[in-house]
């Protein structure tokens, strides 16, 4: 008796492979990369800042050096160091007008303390002058109000602010100035101490601090 065996062939079923997802970088390497980039940017910014500061400092130094040496300094009169206290102390010793031989000195009289020239005669200022530009330009004015001039070294008596004495070249060359005022004699004064020029309008005495002195009654 023949037995028939039925053979069943089973094809092995392969497990279905799950799709693999892409690997993401881990957090630590990512953070490390970001931090590295930040550090690099900070270093570059610091280098640029240092370079800019260096350039600015160099430019400032150059400018300062240029401005320090720009242009010579000119001095129009004798230079000395005087304190106001020393000038005031000298004023207490000023006496009547007399010839001193100095370019400008001081004298004391009824009008107060005022400027005098080398021969002791009174000096005046003209209120119509504009700084060192004289308004005494016509022949008659020049005849009655001759300018005080100095071509050599300027000298000054006690109580004079030496740094304020200078000369100006205008209508008259080398005319002496005090506190920027042009100085004149008056033809009507013939000896030291006379102040008859104060009776003429616009002409005044000049005090030790460059103060214009109004005539006393």
Structure overview:
This protein is an alpha+beta fold and 217 residues long. It has a domain of 130 residues. Helix content is 26%, strand content 13%. It contains 3 helices and 8 strands; from the N terminus they run ααβββαβββββ. A 3-stranded antiparallel beta sheet has the order 3-7-8, with no helix packed on it. It has a 3-stranded antiparallel beta sheet with strand order 4-5-6, with no helix packed on it. A two-stranded antiparallel sheet has the order 1-2. The radius of gyration is 48 Å and the shape is globular.
Instruction: Please bin the fraction of helical residues.
Output: 25-40%
Strands of the widest sheet, in order across it, are 3-7-8
Oligomeric status: single chain
Number of distinct helices:
3
**Low-pLDDT ranges:** 1-11, 47-75
Radius of gyration based on Cα positions: 48 Å
Could you give the distance between the termini? 178 Å
Shape: globular
One letter per element, helices H and strands E, the order comes to HHEEEHEEEEE
Q: Helix/strand/pairing class, anyone?
A: alpha+beta
Mean pLDDT: 76
Instruction: Compute the number of strand runs.
Output: 8
Strand content: 5-15%
Which helices and strands appear, and what pairs or packs with what?
Elements: H1 27-68, H2 84-91, E1 105-109, E2 112-116, E3 124-126, H3 139-144, E4 165-168, E5 175-178, E6 181-182, E7 203-206, E8 212-213
């Amino acid at each position: 008796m023949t037995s028939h065996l039925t053979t069943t062939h089973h094809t092995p079923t392969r497990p279905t492979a799950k799709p693999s997802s892409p690997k993401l970088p881990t957090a630590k390497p990512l953070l490390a990369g970001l931090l590295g980039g930040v550090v690099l940017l900070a270093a570059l910014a610091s280098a640029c800042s240092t370079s800019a500061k260096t350039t600015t400092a160099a430019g400032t130094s150059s400018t300062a050096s240029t401005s320090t040496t720009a242009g010579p300094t000119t001095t129009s009169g004798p230079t000395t160091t005087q304190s106001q206290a020393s000038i005031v102390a000298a004023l207490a010793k000023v006496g009547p007008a007399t010839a001193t031989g100095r370019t400008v000195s001081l004298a004391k009289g009824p009008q107060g303390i005022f400027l005098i020239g080398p021969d002791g005669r009174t000096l005046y200022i003209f209120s119509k002058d504009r700084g060192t530009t004289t308004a005494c330009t016509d022949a008659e004015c020049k005849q009655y109000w001759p300018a005080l001039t100095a071509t050599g070294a300027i000298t000054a008596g006690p109580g004079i602010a030496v740094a304020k004495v200078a000369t100006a070249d205008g209508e008259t060359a080398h005319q002496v100035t005090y506190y920027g005022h042009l100085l004149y004699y008056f033809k009507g004064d013939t000896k030291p101490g006379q102040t008859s020029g104060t009776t003429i309008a616009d002409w005044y005495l000049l005090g030790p601090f460059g103060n214009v002195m109004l005539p006393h009654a």
